[in-house]
TrEMBL record:
<keyword id="KW-0169">Cobalamin biosynthesis</keyword>
<dbReference type="Pfam" id="PF02571">
    <property type="entry name" value="CbiJ"/>
</dbReference>
<keyword id="KW-0560">Oxidoreductase</keyword>
<comment type="pathway">
    <text>Cofactor biosynthesis; adenosylcobalamin biosynthesis.</text>
</comment>
<protein>
    <submittedName>
        <fullName>Precorrin-6A reductase</fullName>
    </submittedName>
</protein>
<dbReference type="InterPro" id="IPR003723">
    <property type="entry name" value="Precorrin-6x_reduct"/>
</dbReference>
């Protein structure tokens, strides 16, 4: 049976683990350990970094195949997975939800980086809501130090924030009524987000649209080349089951 290492931390990774475990695949989901109380998938779970490319390459001795279902902005982990799988000779699949597609009537302003997003937000308003996570908040300090920023995060920020900034801790999925309330209560005049894609955090985009607010959206980083990719959980299930079938045939050939 294929021993699958599933690099997780996303809703898609959990859905994939659930389906593969139900299909009888030996799945180990790997979590970075950033969230104190993560939602756990079916199957085995390991937590914490591998120690770079070399550490991951060594860990791959215990696995036959890898699916990288990390968040679209988790670039280091994806790059490490690509390099380590080549070095260890393990097949790697990238599962990545599609980016969001702008609809008519939505005022989106694309940014190439968080620093760029901060400058755009400062031009567009004085009461931004930041929904870009906590790890990149420092990039927003220079341009938005004097703004009345509301930052929504899962875990508390590790840096000290300017006096006019406030923090709300919450975790998706979110729904439109709550997103409207958040933006209205803060009297937000601009929303900042990453192009995370998916349904979990899409309602804030609808709320911004309803309230006529501009959205600054940080483009996705580039991905490692040469890694086959699928965009939904079903195709990832098929890839793993095909790998599992190949493993069974190899095992049969050994006897
Ligand atoms: P990152 O910058 O790409 O990774 C930094 C380091 O964290 C990696 O080199 C690795 O350490 C460790 N790491 C990351 N993902 C891991 C995993 N699934 N299993 C074990 N170690 C992992 O990642 P990040 O942006 O900090 O994201 C961390 C995790 O949060 C990811 O699993 C991602 O799916 C999830 N997440 C990220 C975002 C986001 O916006 N970035 C949003 C939602 C969820 P070593 O080098 O020691 O192996």
């Amino acid at each position: 049976m294929t021993r699958l290492l599933l690099l997780g931390g996303t809703a898609e990774a959990r859905a994939l683990a659930d389906q593969l475990v139900a299909a009888g695949v030996a799945v180990t989901t790997s979590l970075a350990g950033r969230v104190a109380d993560p939602r756990l998938p079916a199957g085995q779970v390991r937590v914490g970094g591998f120690g770079g490319i070399e550490g991951l390459r060594a860990a791959l001795a215990d696995y036959d195949a890898v699916v990288d279902a990390t968040h679209p902005f988790a670039t280091t982990m994806s790059a490490n997975a690509a390099a380590a799988c080549v070095a260890a000779g393990r097949p790697l699949l990238r599962l990545e939800r599609p980016g969001w597609v702008q609809r008519a009537g939505q005022a989106w302003h694309w940014a190439d980086s968080h620093a760029h997003a901060a400058r755009l937000a400062a031009r567009l308003g004085g009461r931004p809501v930041l929904t870009i996570g906590r790890q990149q908040l420092a990039a927003y300090l220079p341009a938005l130090a004097d703004a009345a920023v509301l930052a929504r995060v899962v875990e508390p920020p590790a840096i000290s924030l300017p006096p006019r900034w406030s923090v709300v801790r919450d975790r998706g999925p979110y729904a439109l009524p709550g997103e409207l309330t958040l933006l209205r209560d803060h009297r937000a005049d601009v929303v900042v987000t990453k192009d995370s894609g998916g349904d979990y955090t899409w309602p804030k985009m609808l709320a911004a649209e309803q309230l006529g607010l501009p959205v600054v959206i940080v483009r996705r980083p580039t991905r490692p080349t040469g890694v086959p990719a699928v965009y939904d959980v079903e195709r990832a299930v098929s890839w793993v089951l095909a790998a599992d079938q190949g493993q069974l045939q190899r095992d049969a050939g050994d006897h």
